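Hi all, long-time lurker, first post. I run a small reading group and we've been trying to get comfortable going from sequence to structure in the token notation. Rather than ask abstract questions, I figured I'd post a concrete chain and ask someone more experienced to write out its structure so we can walk through it together at our next meeting. Sequence below, copied exactly:
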Amino acid sequence: MEHKKPEIPEEDDNREPVIIENDYLLKSELTSRIALLFFFGWLISISLAPEPDPLNELYRKLALGTAIIGVIWTIATELRMLLGLIKNKLYIRIDKNEIEYEYIDGKGERKTDTLKKEDIISIKWALFPYKAKDSDIWITEITDKDDRRWAFLFSPLYLLVSSIYLIVFIVLNKFRVKKYLLIRFKDGLISIPDSRELSKTSDFKNKDEIKFEWRSLMNRYILQGGYYARQ
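-- Answer (accepted) --
Happy to help. Here is the structure in token form:
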């Protein structure tokens, strides 16, 4: 008896696109602002007591003035973008060939980037949802020797800042540690919150086998929610 070759099921072209809420842009923007407010608040707290020495008193006033300006700048900068992130629900739409990525620009307007799946370079995962329009995302990717040298010199600071940001972000996530898939393209990076819905697409059926991006633990950028829009 002749046995028929089993047919391999193909992805249904008529399948409904997967739509995931893009809520991390607001949380990452707030993470950056809260971390900066903590820093400037600490600087204010240690600069309140007058110093008897004139030179130390001058340094105290400079530090206090810098901290106050820093607080005002942290609250007021990119305010329209922040309000846009608060008012709007953003989504990531995934179909067979494209990923539509919604975000808010500096004017507070909703924008959408359409990214082709065929342009995906790699897919990994991280604990923090990185997003940027840049080709040199991680320290190890810096091509200029001087920039690379300085980046590695300040790597302990980047590690500290990244740790603080991650802690604040987890608090904003109500102490839930989430997994974010990092979708790398030639000129940038977006993140997609991990969910069961992703398994409905052919690209993410085996998402449990995706490797962790260790370089995400020490990023040289402070990636706010609006960072993607400013590139």
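A couple of things your group might point at:
DSSP finds six helices and seven strands in the chain.
The longest strand covers residues 98-104.
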